[in-house]
């Protein structure tokens, strides 16, 4: 595979490009508002995502995934470069996803999308596929400190995949791990939501398991924001992200590149059925 190296190179280029002074053409507030609105108005999405995520071993996992999504109701179909297929449809299969592992014994599994099997070595749940994580980063939440969200600034323009993009950049040098003691039992997901830091690092730093009940009074080490530096490249026509890179205290934490983005075009309901002729479920 060669694309992991391109992803790392692209992240470095974004970091360099974002240092340029922005032309006076759009304000930070306008950019964030238009980005949020475009994500909120998504009804369907097709795209290919190249993900590069740092694991607990400090190595990187690179995955290329084809996605089809609808949002009301929420339906998710994914197929990665290893031939693994995932289908999740709101209100079906008792909340589980159908998973075809493309390996022995070649049978379809029913798995909890937020369970330990599907979340192993994954920064995010399949239910966050698309732009859910990005939307969460730029929106205020009453239970969180607003410092990280307010650190985003319009930082100029760049080109991604031959398309003009706005650069939205967060510099948050005060990023660090802070001590936190739950006043009542909480799960890692609830702690992550409280701090807006993402669940993966809460699990990693505190040696917790997905869904584990953390007792009241236990001291945790939790990031006080999502990253030390975050760069989002927003397509100037679609107003949707084409690339996202996040750095923390250890370096590059994760990067995502969204290719062949098709938004709000009808997707036949049959393509969210496990019996669809092109799938192997």
Automatic annotation (TrEMBL):
InterPro entries linked: DUF1571
Pfam families membership: DUF1571
Highest taxon, organism lineage: Bacteria
UniProt name for this protein: DUF1571 domain-containing protein
Native species: Hymenobacter busanensis
Taxonomy of the source species: Bacteria, Pseudomonadati, Bacteroidota, Cytophagia, Cytophagales
């Amino acid at each position: 595979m060669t694309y992991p190296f391109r992803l790392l190179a692209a992240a470095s280029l974004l970091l360099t490009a974002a240092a340029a002074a922005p032309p006076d053409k759009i304000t930070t507030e306008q950019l964030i508002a238009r980005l949020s609105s475009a994500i909120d108005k998504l009804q369907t999405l097709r795209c290919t995502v190249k993900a590069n995520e740092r694991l607990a071993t400090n190595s990187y996992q690179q995955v290329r995934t084809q996605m089809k999504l609808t949002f009301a109701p929420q339906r998710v179909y994914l197929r990665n470069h290893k031939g693994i297929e995932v289908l999740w449809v709101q209100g079906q299969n008792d909340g589980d996803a159908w998973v075809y592992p493309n390996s022995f014994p070649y049978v379809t599994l029913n798995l909890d999308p937020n369970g330990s099997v599907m979340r192993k070595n994954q920064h995010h749940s399949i239910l966050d596929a698309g732009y859910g994580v990005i939307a969460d980063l730029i929106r205020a939440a009453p239970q969180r400190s607003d410092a990280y969200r307010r650190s985003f600034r319009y930082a100029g323009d760049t080109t991604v995949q031959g398309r003009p993009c706005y650069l939205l950049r967060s510099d948050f040098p005060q990023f660090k791990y802070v001590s936190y003691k739950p006043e009542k039992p909480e799960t890692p997901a609830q702690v992550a939501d409280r701090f807006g830091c993402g669940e993966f690092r809460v699990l990693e730093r505190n040696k917790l398991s997905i869904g584990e009940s953390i007792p009241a009074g236990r001291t945790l080490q939790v990031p006080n924001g999502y990253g030390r530096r975050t760069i989002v490249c927003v397509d100037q026509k679609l107003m949707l992200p084409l690339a996202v890179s996040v750095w923390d205290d250890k370096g590059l934490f994760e990067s995502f590149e969204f290719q062949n983005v098709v938004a709000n075009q009808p997707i036949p309901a049959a393509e969210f059925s496990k019996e669809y002729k092109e799938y192997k479920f």
